[in-house]
Design a protein that fits this description.
10 helices, 7-stranded parallel β-sheet, binds nicotinamide-adenine-dinucleotide
């Protein structure tokens, strides 16, 4: 069994990744400064003797390096970030600090301590608009936000360090992740968490545009499994893969699933399309299957049913 250091452990993806690793029997060192994460997300993890949470800022020089030197993990899963595209546009300097400078500090901690593997939370945002669908990893990268640019630069920074200093870097390009613990209060949150809250409160939703815009929605429990594979699977070499399902779901279909489960909630209202909204985003999952042995298992219908019912996510299934 391995010891994995997870940055952003109290966040949405980080807490599910932590729970998954613990369920597999791994030891997890959690790091978070609770900027957007919540300690409650780790209620279950904190019961485990194989888990500890360290409250620190990964962008503070020396802080993470000292912890990595003390803990000597087998792998680092780096998820901590400024996660909102809109916030990166409003505050590009903070985006640079949290999304690129912090990555440099992770690379440096891995180099100095001899960590064997670094898994990085990249994003479909590195592709920007206009890539041919489904998007393959080799597609041209044209990020259109400071967030996407920092994720792309972070991939290169880590891969270059890994090649030079001898650690394996796995970059995970997540598409639209959804599931329990995603914060619906944030105006930047994913559409599924916003729909789930609105329907749960008996309120209708507004669809901007014709509702035919599509996304590749991947369940957080699948993402957690993909992260665990990237961190622990023996024999992996460096690389970057899409973490997606390869299935497109339109916003209209999404609203239809919610409406069927909440027949009393008013039908969706329609409003004009918002400028800048991407029309389609669909990933090609083949490389993740070939390189990581990862295939998403949860359909949107199953994932939504679980989310709506509030039933516990079964791990390792
Ligand atoms: N949710 C998605 O659909 C999605 C898609 C693509 C990429 N990502 C990436 O996945 C990662 C996790 O995102 P999430 O959706 O779970 O968001 P989240 O906000 O729930 O998690 C991020 C966590 O990082 C922590 N954090 C932020 N800055 C920190 C710092 N300086 N020091 C220590 N901890 C810090 C936050 O408190 C939070 O717990 C991020 O890197 C994000 O960019 C997410």
């Amino acid at each position: 069994m391995a010891k994995i250091l997870v940055t952003g452990a109290a966040g949405f993806i980080g807490s599910h990744t932590t729970d998954f690793l613990l369920a597999e029997g791994q030891t997890v060192v959690g790091v978070d400064n609770l900027r957007t994460g919540r300690r409650e997300n780790l209620d279950s993890a904190l019961q485990s003797p194989r888990f500890a949470l360290h409250l620190l800022d990964v962008a503070a020089p020396g802080a993470l390096a000292a912890l990595v030197a003390a803990e000597r993990p087998d792998a680092i899963v780096h998820l901590a970030a400024l996660v909102s595209v809109q916030e990166s546009m409003a505050n590009p300097a903070l985006n640079f600090s949290l999304n690129l400078h912090a990555t440099q500090l992770v690379a440096e901690a891995a180099r100095v301590t001899g960590v064997g593997r670094v898994v990085f939370a990249s994003s479909a945002a590195i592709y920007g608009d206009g890539a041919e669908q489904p998007i393959r990893e080799s597609a041209e990268k044209r990020p259109v936000s400071p967030y996407g640019a920092a994720k792309l630069a972070s991939e290169d920074l880590l891969l270059g360090h890994g090649a030079c200093y001898g650690f394996t870097v796995r970059c995970q390009r997540y598409f639209n992740v959804y599931g329990p613990r995603q914060d619906p209060a944030s105006p930047y949150s994913g559409v599924i968490s916003i729909f789930a809250r609105r329907y749960g409160e008996g309120k209708g939703v507004t669809i901007y545009g014709d509702g035919r815009q599509t996304r590749d929605f991947v369940a957080v429990r699948d993402v957690a499994r993909a992260n665990a594979l990237a961190a622990t699977r023996p024999g992996l070499v460096a690389g970057s893969v899409n973490i997606c399902t390869g299935r497109a779901t339109s916003l209209g279909e999404l609203a239809g699933i919610f409406s069927a489960r909440h027949p009393d909630v008013p039908a969706p209202a329609h409003a004009p399309a918002r400028p800048g909204d991407i029309r389609h985003s669909l990933g090609d999952p083949a490389a993740a299957a070939a390189e990581l042995g990862f295939t998403a298992r949860t359909t949107v219908a199953e994932g939504l049913a679980e989310l709506i019912a509030g039933s516990p996510v079964s791990l390792l299934s």
